[in-house]
Design a protein that fits this description.
heterodimer, A: 163 residues, alpha+beta, Glutaredoxin, 2 domains, four-stranded mixed beta sheet, B: 507 residues, alpha/beta, Rossmann fold, Ubiquitin-like (UB roll), 4 domains, five-stranded mixed beta sheet, 21 helices, 40% helix
């Protein structure tokens, strides 16, 4: 996807989804993070068109909603690949070779952290601790934790993602 | 067919527990998904119920399942015997983690059969001040890392003028090398619920939140399930167990911001805002969530409370050393042969943990550095392994116990790279509110790069030291304030790594 979505693309579907999810939380502004999580699960990302709709529902300014969406690492502004692989880069995993693992993965998938493979199968992301520090190095595949990851295990994961 | 236990803990699942459970179910066994015992080097750990107790096998793969002699609990290469007799578990002092791994985490009846709700039952018959007094007596200090006395915090909220008050659990366990909070939420979540409910009764709060990082989807799901079970059994909600006391609890997801583990940033996030740090005062105990008096504690602090209420503050206080009372669930992580959770009274030495329980490095090479207390904790050399783990001893050594995470590095570690990473991490995760942290972290990365490249080394080391002092003194919170700790400890204990020939360092 190239460029940012503009207001001209404002899709009624995206705005409607945003309004419906906000309503599920009683239009409470304190639930904004939850609403954004649900919206992202539903649409795959947080489209620009959803922001004004959310701001209106929650009685916030668009700047406030924009501020929250851009502050937190979780919210993506563009669609991701079909699968998301997070690789832990924190100290415990580093002590077990996470930096070498990341380099190996980047070469293998031909993308850098934060990018999506050309076939759209996998988005590769960095994570800073997945809480699996006794079984490092760790990655998370679509929310499922994998421990003691090595080249062979990773190739199996990728093959499953692409099948 | 046998009754078998296979953990649903996400770390156990990360090495194949689901596949093992599936294979066991296929053979017709009754499979119960318990929490993890915390012996992660033995996961997936399968336990079978027998006349003599639960006999364990591990680490089990799905392929091993067919060969397990479950009906006789007989000999097998993976047979570990009764897991309680395993030295790793037997030599611990498990107060908080006494039940984790034994029960079905979301079963209220299982929880109650193993001593659950005794503390809350007692608290229901006490005045708030009496509950606060019991917690004060225990000597419990905040397990999130800062070590502030929990009783004093609760008393401040208790004494605040009546009105809406909140209890918030900080479950944003972002420190590398820590997983005890996750284990509680996935393995014994009802204990956390009980601890929070007791806090609510103590201070007069009726509403609570558990703020869980989004990197923990299993913990989020299990916590929600446990809250629903507790509410269905009237341990949460209006009129708890038919009394006039009420407490409503809700899970809120974080969104990948390390800074939200800082309590005031967490409050902002719970209010639906950017997770920026609030200056203190006002303290959250008086003006916290939505400006109301709020108890904020770490998962492990709340989790320690049911024991304190049921057994008495004095019983808890009996454990520990000096002003560090009770136990701490230490987490052995990183390059370690036997990684896992080791709950011990304060005063245990790093050597007992890392060599005794941990069995040295996973790689088999010599230990070179140990980072205690998460990414903001100091790097210690192997020569300091006889230091006792308690808040004061560590503070005196320019280090911190923090949340009890212990990450071991072998001799291949490059400490200049670790120091650089500490600054880089701070730059990535800084909320941006205060200048020393926002700008200092990026400048820190640059200065370390110059040192490593051999550019004007002495002057740049002085500059780095000066920068660290500014960050320590001038940052609003522990993110910028403590990032200098790993950096300066690396320089202090491993100066040779900052003084390598430049061409090697620059490779």
């Amino acid at each position: 996807m190239s460029g940012k979505t503009t207001l001209l693309d404002l899709s009624p579907r995206e705005a409607t989804a945003a309004r419906e999810i906000a309503l599920r939380y009683g239009n409470r502004p304190d639930a904004l993070l939850e609403i954004l999580h649900d919206l992202q699960e539903h649409l795959g990302f947080i489209p620009e068109a959803a922001l004004p709709a959310l701001a209106k529902s929650l009685n916030l300014s668009r700047a406030e909603v924009h501020g929250v969406v851009t502050f937190y690492h979780d919210y993506r502004r563009e669609p991701a690949g079909r699968h998301i692989i997070k690789v832990c880069r924190a100290e415990a995993c580093q002590s077990m070779g996470a930096n070498e693992l990341v380099s190996m993965i980047e070469r293998f998938l031909k993308v850098k952290l934060g990018q999506t493979t050309a076939d759209g199968a996998i988005t590769l992301e960095a994570a800073y601790c997945l809480g699996n520090c006794a079984l490092s190095p760790a990655v998370m595949v679509d929310g499922k934790l994998v421990g003691r990851v090595d080249a062979q295990k990773f190739e199996t994961i990728v093959a499953e993602c692409r099948s | 067919m046998s009754k078998v236990y296979v953990p649903r803990d996400s770390a156990a699942r990360s090495v194949g527990a689901d596949e093992v459970a599936e294979a066991l179910a296929k053979l017709g066994h009754e499979v119960i998904r318990n929490g993890s015992r915390g012996l992660f080097f033995l996961e997936p750990l399968v336990e079978v119920e027998t006349g003599e107790g639960r006999i364990a096998y591990g680490p089990v793969t799905a392929g091993d399942v067919a060969s397990l002699p479950l009906s006789t609990a007989g000999a097998h290469k993976l047979r570990l015997g009764k897991i309680e007799d395993h030295p790793y578990l037997k030599n611990q002092e498990r107060l908080t983690f006494a039940r984790c791994g034994i029960t079905d985490p979301v079963s209220v009846s299982d929880y109650a059969r193993h001593g659950g709700f005794e503390g809350l039952n007692k608290a229901l018959g006490l005045a708030g001040a009496a509950i606060v007094a019991e917690v004060t007596e225990s000597g419990l200090r905040g397990r999130g890392g800062a070590g502030f006395p929990t009783g004093i915090k609760w008393k401040t909220v208790h004494d605040a003028p009546a009105g809406q008050k909140y209890v918030c659990c900080n479950a944003d366990e972002g420190d590398s090398g820590t997983f005890a909070d996750r284990m509680v939420m996935e393995g014994d979540p009802l204990m956390l619920i009980e601890g929070m409910a007791i806090a609510a009764l103590a201070v007069g709060a009726t509403k609570g939140y558990v703020y869980i990082r989004s990197e923990y989807p299993d913990a989020i799901a299990t916590m929600k399930e446990a809250i629903a079970s507790a509410a269905a059994a009237k341990w949460l909600g209006d009129n708890i167990q038919g009394t006039d006391k009420s407490f409503h609890l809700e899970v809120r997801r974080g969104a990948g911001a390390y800074i939200c583990g800082e309590e005031t940033a967490m409050l902002e996030s719970l209010e639906g805002k950017r997770g920026t740090v609030r200056p203190k005062p006002p303290i959250p105990a008086l003006e916290g969530l939505f400006g109301k008096p709020t108890v904020i504690n770490n998962v492990l602090s709340f989790a320690a409370v049911p024991y304190i209420l049921s057994h008495g503050g004095a019983a808890y206080k009996n454990y520990g050393l000096g002003r560090s009372r009770g136990t701490l669930p230490f987490q052995l992580a990183g390059n370690i042969r036997q990684g896992g959770l080791v709950e011990k009274a304060f005063g245990v030495t790093l050597r007992e943990l890392v060599e005794g329980f941990g069995g040295g490095t996973f790689s088999g090479r010599a230990i070179r550095a140990i980072q205690v207390g998460g990414p903001l904790g100091a790097y210690l050399p192997a020569s300091q392994m006889d230091m006792a783990l308690d808040y004061e001893t560590f503070a005196a050594a320019g280090a911190m116990v923090g949340h009890g995470g212990i990450v071991v590095f072998d001799e291949t570690v490059d400490m200049a790279a670790q120091a650089r990473f500490a600054m880089e991490f701070c730059a990535i995760e800084s909320c941006g509110k205060c200048t020393p942290c926002r700008i200092g972290s990026t400048r820190g990365v640059e200065v370390i790069d110059k040192i490593v490249a051999g550019e004007d080394r002495d002057a740049n080391l002085d500059l780095l030291s000066d920068l660290c002092q500014t960050m320590t003194d001038g940052s609003l919170c522990a993110m910028g304030g403590l990032t200098p700790m790993p950096v300066m400890s690396a320089i202090k204990h491993f100066p040779e790594d900052f003084d390598k020939p430049a061409q090697i360092a620059a490779e």
